[in-house]
Design a protein that fits this description.
- The structure is a single chain.
- The protein has a domain of about 50 residues.
- The chain is rod-shaped and about 75 Å long.
- It starts with a helix and ends in a 10-residue tail after the last helix.
- It has three helices and no strands.
- By secondary structure, the chain is mainly alpha-helical.
- It is about 80% helix and about 0% strand.
């Protein structure tokens, strides 16, 4: 009896495994994209971060600034300081 049930559920299990693999790949691609945008944001703000550091900002406050902007990006999907008019 168990063999019959296993045979009937085999295609559904294969689809489930395939969907899990594709979901994992999608998450990895999304994380890579988020990393790329945050690193671009930091690279484009290198002078600003340097000035803040020279004026007395701590490494922790700069780290907090970058992380906060990254979280804002993740929440709104709008790159902070990248699309802002200059």
């Amino acid at each position: 009896m168990d063999g019959v049930v296993d045979d009937r559920l085999a295609p559904a299990r294969a689809e489930e495994i395939a969907m899990e693999v594709f979901a994992a790949i999608a998450i990895v691609i999304a994380i890579m994209g988020l990393y790329a945008i945050v690193s671009f944001s930091v690279a484009s703000r290198t002078r600003e971060l340097g000035v803040r550091l020279a004026l007395g900002a701590t490494g922790r406050s700069l780290f907090t600034l970058v992380i906060r902007d990254g979280l804002r990006l993740a929440a709104t999907l709008e790159p902070p300081h990248v699309a802002a008019p200059r």
